[in-house]
Amino acid sequence: MGTDGEALTLSTEEAAVYDRQIRLWGADAQQRMSTSRVVVVGRVRSNLGNELIKNICLAGVSSIILCSVNDVEGQGFLGDSLDEVRNSVQDINRFVKVDIFEGEEAAANEVKSSTAVCLIGFDSVPSIMSIAKSCRQGGIGLFVGECIGLFGAVFLDLGVRSYAEEDKDSGRLIEKVIDYTSYADTFDDMGVPKAPTAPGAIALGEMLRIKSNSSEDVEELTVAYARAVAEMYERTGVNGKQRLSEQHLRSFAHAARTEVPPVSAIVGGIYGREVIKYLTGKDEPLNNLFFFDAIRSTGIVECM
Amino acid sequence: MDTVISNGGLNGLGLKKVLVVGAGGVGCELLKNLGMSGFERVTLIDLDTIDVSNLNRQFLFRKEHVGQAKAKIAAAAIEKMLHGKCKVDPIVGNIKEERFSAKFFGEFDVVLNALDNLDARRHVNRMCLNAKVPMVESGSTGYLGQVTVVHPGKTECYDCNPAPVPKTYAVCTIRSTPEKPVHCVVWAKQLFELLFGPEDESNLLADLAKNDEDAAENGATPMAEGRSLQWDRKQSSEDFAERVLKRVFWNDVLRQREVAEETWKTRAPPEPLDVLKIAKQNADADAPTNLLDQLVWTKEQNAKCIFGVLKRFVERRNDEIGNIQFDKDDDDVLAFVTSAANLRASVYGVELSSAFAVKGIAGNIIHAIATTNAIVAALIVLETIKIVTIDQGTDPKDASLTTYVKRFPNSTRRGKFLVQTERLQAPNRACFVCSKGRLELEIDLSRKLQFLIDKVVRGNLGMINPSIYATTAGNVNIIYESGEGLEPDEVEMYESNAKKSLSDLNVGSGSTLEIGDISQSLNLSVLVTHNPALGSEADPVEFSVTGSIPESASAEAPSSAVEEEALQRSNGNKKRRRKDDGVVFVPTSKKEKLQMLSDMIEIE
Ligand SMILES: [Zn+2]
């Protein structure tokens, strides 16, 4: 990095703006980023959506295509309407081209010509399965992120992915490969994990079930939420002595319907980091689930 | 966190008064998160103006804001973003100014550090201890991040862990036997400061200015005070450049071949370079101008560049000479350091570097990216919410956490952690800041008082406006005072003291120095031991400061296992050490322990 004598084809102005990150990931990585098209599909106006969009926009991709599907309003910081969001994103980095579409059909089209596809919400896009399949066919990286109350997760399906890793002894870059489990093998048609065994995946499944539960009955939600949290903690070794009080359970149930801003920022940060790794081909990508728990402030990685 | 939600969501946060120190990468994200989470009363302090290299992560700033005050632009951006729901009160200033007193800090419910330098972090820590206000501390470097909390008197303060030791190189490696590009860059920076900066007796190349035997040879008159290498105000720019280049790349290289004779038995000796000739031979070629480019200049380009820039300083900036600070963003300075380092590298057969790389090394640039900043800022808010909503009676040690953001998942028997926590520790009883530990100083007493003030009192102890009383054999003597309210004759006296050696000021082995800083409410008792070997070629460490538990306190038996641990640690066990930017990194050997601690953290 920096000593390989490689000439930049980025403009002087871009080199000045991206200086600090070029020092971290190298000019070649920045170059690759500047040829990438990232499609963001689903709740682009959620806080998690906004966090991710901001992060990849700052990183300096070539273009960001926002496909709003089953979107929310008034939860993010980039603006209420899609136009406001577009203007804010454009404002953050004018080297990035920003496009906005609404609905699933547009999304299906845009996915085919993209470098990476980022879904916001497992349940936001009914056609998620077919998007996942066209990503597999096209060799396009698929990412899905979700924040539910005090928890959040990012899932990655990068197909058969090779990446460069620095050899600890020689410092040379060596190529490594991860064969990802496909989205279709991991999730059912409703976007819920099929047979989760790891604690984060189990919790994610339960959270998604609770979220899709249209019941207004707080008691019912409370019980479901409690089961999910207890199950997760039992598997991560937090059990026995620590019973969740009735009050805690209620608080979880209430939180399950909202986004907690710092949680979205943390999950959006890890999400952005993984998308950047994918676009630059540097560093080992996560395989294949990141799960964040704001009660304990811990973020775990597991393979679903 | 769950308690917060059950207490009626995030409502109620709007009444809390929050001080944010720093509107940089973490600061911008932090303000957004605070506002989004329901905080409404935020005061923001930052001294800095916006630079173009901030725009890749400080997302509240735009190109048209470059040059304007960060605090003001950030406050206005948040106001607009959140439609006025969060009021940010901007203060353009240095947090170390006396107007930000303990009373000022005491008006806040919590203080959040989003800083990028050690001095300010240490100062804010002291102010928060004085004002008894909880502080959240943060750091972000590349892919690594860290957030921790200080509950005054109840948990470790920022100074409870040893201050970082700045990275130093053996004098002879820099002066005579460079092996890596970094050695040449350090040398070039020293040469820059020698030629254009304020006088500094600890400059590694000081002898280069004093040993003026080539001056006569070159027909120049040796100057008084041994500063012959500097521009003498009567010299033409061309003569100046010629003399410098001849001295450092030819005469001195020949001398170094003799000095380090042993070294050249195992590696090729340095080859002197007639830089002037190379520069003039290629008179038609353009000197390189693009300092952001990662291309490595050729020897000819470097020669041309240094010849040009030396002349430029005399022709265009001669009124500044003797007072120019190293500044990585000053193009002349960077061009000088890059070409000087590369010519030195040519002489010694070391690999050459691009201006881009030299800027990074010479400017100690900390790699900074948006994603890590975003995560760190969000972790600060999680801790802040816990602090301001903590139930009476809850031990703050159990409520708050230290959180680490890692580059790769850390495998443990409980799973792989990318975001990992650690419990807060009790204060270190040997800490000279929060536990009034006693200090011992070993130093060569022929050092000037100025050295003690700059390197020990300001540098190591982190004081800003110190006063120093020396007690030797029962006689107390005020040797130094600073800050506001001094009479002109006092200022004069202390300035003259600063130029005297410690022994001339009657400080000897066994003397006690009472070193204090009223603004930090800090008063230390320091026992002095004379050690003439420190700072020599054999032992480049210039002084040593060690802390110990005061006798009165150490006589008490530790009352708990935690205190026992704190005690052991203070007795010399190695603890975590901060890196230059203040981020603590946990060594791998601590991984298991860290995991066990994280397992102990309970749901409530
Ligand atoms: Zn302390």
From the structure above, extract its key features.
heterodimer; A: 304 residues; alpha/beta; Rossmann fold; 8-stranded mixed sheet; two-stranded antiparallel sheet; 12 helices; globular; disordered N terminus; B: 604 residues; Arc Repressor Mutant, subunit A; Structural Genomics Hypothetical 15.5 Kd Protein In mrcA-pckA Intergenic Region, Chain A; 6-stranded mixed sheet; 16% strand; disordered C terminus; binds zinc ion; ubl conjugation pathway (chain B); ATP-binding (chain B); zinc (chain B); ThiF_NAD_FAD-bd (chain B)
Describe this structure in words.
The complex is a heterodimer of chains A (304) and B (604). Chain A is an alpha/beta fold and 304 residues long. In chain A, 43% of the residues lie in helices and 20% in strands. Chain A folds into 2 domains: 12-191 and 260-302, NAD(P)-binding Rossmann-like Domain (Rossmann fold, 3-Layer(aba) Sandwich), CATH 3.40.50.720; 199-254, no CATH class. Chain A has an 8-stranded mixed beta sheet with strand order 3-2-1-4-5-6-9-10, sandwiched between helices. Chain A has a two-stranded antiparallel sheet with strand order 7-8. Chain B has 3 domains: 2-142 and 368-389, NAD(P)-binding Rossmann-like Domain (Rossmann fold, 3-Layer(aba) Sandwich); 169-362, Orthogonal Bundle (Arc Repressor Mutant, subunit A), CATH 1.10.10.520; 438-548, Structural Genomics Hypothetical 15.5 Kd Protein In mrcA-pckA Intergenic Region, Chain A (Roll), CATH 3.10.290.20. Chain B has an 8-stranded mixed beta sheet with strand order 3-2-1-4-5-6-7-8, sandwiched between helices. The longest helix of chain B is centred in the middle third of the chain and has 23 residues, at 237-259. The interface between A and B is large, with 75 and 72 residues. Bound molecules: zinc ion. Residues 157, 159-160, 427-428, 431, 433-435 of chain B line the site of zinc ion.
